[in-house]
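Justification of computing resources. Each target in the renewal requires a structure prediction run like the one illustrated here; the chain below, 330 residues long, is used simply to show the kind of job we budget for.
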Amino acid sequence: MSDRIDQRNTILNLYNSGIDPEIIALELDINQDTVMNVIKNESKVNQKKSPKNMSSVLLNKLYLDAVIDINEIISDSQVKTWKALKSKPDFNTSFKDTQNILEQCGETKINLVILHIDLVGSTRMSLNLPIERLTTIIRTFAQQMSLIVSMYGGFVLKYIGDAVLAFFVVEDIQDRSIQNQPEEAESKDNDDFYRLQFSNAISCAYAMIKVIQEGINPILSQYDYPELKVRAGIDFGEIAIVQYGWDIDEHKEITLKKPHLDLIGYTISIVVKMTSLVEPDHIIIGQKLFDKLDTKQKNTFRQLPANPDIWGYMHKTTGGIYNLYGNIKQ
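Resulting structure tokens:
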């Protein structure tokens, strides 16, 4: 019985890694019909339950500020920061859910909210701090920001030095991937649903800043570390999912392959660039995201002055300067 379970798991692992059933049968020296039966049975099971990697997408359909205890997150961040300073940090992270979401969409375009948060003054810290203390700070920052992204229904795409780049899904990937239907324009009936998803991304950024100010910094100050400040940039747009090739993992006589996927788009370039233009511990958003907010949330932001010498990005529709908005600090 144990051997049958091991064989089934091996077949599924190989198949999910992009290996053709015929090759799997040859590698394992079994009948191809056996391989196909395992794959078909697993597909039937998956159709009866929501895919595990959709959990964060489903979370993003809720008003998460109402169910997330920010004070508990702050307390947890203090404990994790203290442990990181006392010993090597226990930083467990996985990009499995991110990979699964990208694989579902394949090489297509998808509407996403992009969030970019980075540390202010990290260059100065690198000059004044021993490398061990600097890496401890950056690891602690990355860990806490990643946890908050996940809580608000987002996915961490990558770490870029002292920054975290994440995305939030603003369309139903599950229905789109299963039915293989093209993306449709948002209807008026769906406005509230989409505004909710945009709101969660903004709430995530506010939570990040609050956790740093009230959770991480008080612990750092006790150990004579510099205070952390961050900037967060957020915008919405159509992003292309691109496969660059395959990640190869050779295990004994079996070669596992997974598509190497990444996101490319004008929106990502805008978000990364505009993050540096806002004051520390503030949030900056782009015109496309601002237009999606309701009146109440729009009133929490103010348009920032445009300096063509610093900011040269153009609005694709109007042809004018792409407007940016900073949050009014509360």
